Amino acid sequence: MPGLTAYVGILDIGAMRPGEAVFVSAAAGAVGSLAGQIAKLRGASRVVGSAGSAAKVEYLTKLGYDAAFNYHDAPVRDQLKAAAPDGIDVYLDNVGGDHLEAALSRMRPFGRIALCGAISMYNAGRQAPGPANLPLAIGKQLTLRGYLVGSHEDRRPDFLAEMAQWLRAGRIRFDETVVDGIAHAPDAFLGLLRGDNTGKMLVRL
Ligand SMILES: NC(=O)c1ccc[n+]([C@@H]2O[C@H](COP(=O)([O-])OP(=O)(O)OC[C@H]3O[C@@H](n4cnc5c(N)ncnc54)[C@H](OP(=O)(O)O)[C@@H]3O)[C@@H](O)[C@H]2O)c1
C-alpha cells in the first residue's frame, strides 16, 4: 500500500518527468522512503527529503536522496532553499503546514504538488489556516491535487511489475520498524505521530 501510494504520487499525481527535481516530506517513512527512490529510478535530476532526526537524514542519503535535512534544525523554507537552490518541480506532501508553505515558495512554474497526507495537522487542536502563500500557485500556474491510493488500483499491475524488477535487481531498499504484540499497537500508532519509525511501522502478532 505505501509503495503504490508513493508510485502513484510521484508518477501520476506529481506527473514527474525525467530531469525534474522532487521534494518529499516525511521522507524516511513508509511512503516517503519509497517515493524518493522511485523518483531517482525514474530519472529525477535531484531528490530532496525532510525528516525529523539526524539519524533519519543520514538514512535518506543511504537511500540515494541527493540532499536531506532535519526540519527541527531550522525553518523548513530556509533549509529547502539551500537543498534545492534551483527549485522543485514535484512535491510529494505527507506533512502539510510549514512544509507545504515552504514547497509553494520553491516550486518552479507549472510544478505539481501531490497532496498525500498532512500528518503535522492531524492532531492540531484547532484547524490551522491554509498556507499563507497559496496565491503563489496562481502566478506559477501550479497544480495541487489530493489523492487516495484506493482510487488507483488500476495502477497496481504496473507498480508490481516495475517494483518487482527493481527489487530483484537490488535497486530498492526498504526498512520496517516492528513493534511486538497486539497490546503495543496503540504505542506503535502513537509512535508514528512521534516519528519513532523508519520505513513502515508494523505490529507483529
Ligand atoms: N493519500 C493516501 O492514499 C495515503 C496512503 C498512505 C499514507 N498516506 C499519508 O501519507 C503520510 C505518510 O504515511 P506513512 O504511512 O508513510 O507514515 P510514515 O511516514 O511511515 O510515518 C509518519 C511519519 O511522519 C512524520 N511526522 C510525524 N509528525 C510530524 C510533523 N508534525 N511534522 C513532520 N513530520 C511528522 C514522522 O517522521 P519524522 O521523524 O520525520 O518526523 C513519522 O515517522 C501520512 O500523512 C499518511 O496519512 C496517504
Question: How large is the count of helical segments?
Answer: 8
How large is the radius of gyration? Answer: 16 Å
What is the CATH domain class of the largest domain?
Alpha Beta
Total domains, how many? 2
Overall mean pLDDT stands at: 97
The CATH topology of the largest domain is given as Rossmann fold
Bound molecules: NADP nicotinamide-adenine-dinucleotide phosphate
| Structural class determined from secondary elements | alpha/beta
Q: Which runs of at least 5 residues are low in confidence (pLDDT < 50)?
A: none
CATH architecture of the largest domain: 3-Layer(aba) Sandwich
Strand numbers in spatial order across the main sheet: 3-2-1-4-5-6
Largest sheet: 6 strands, parallel
Give me the CATH superfamily of the largest domain. Answer: NAD(P)-binding Rossmann-like Domain
What is the H-and-E element order?
HEHEHEHEHEHEHEHE
Helix content: 25-40%
Please report the distance between the alpha carbons of the first and last residues: 19 Å
Beta-strand percentage? 15-25%
Give the strand tally. Answer: 8
Shape: globular
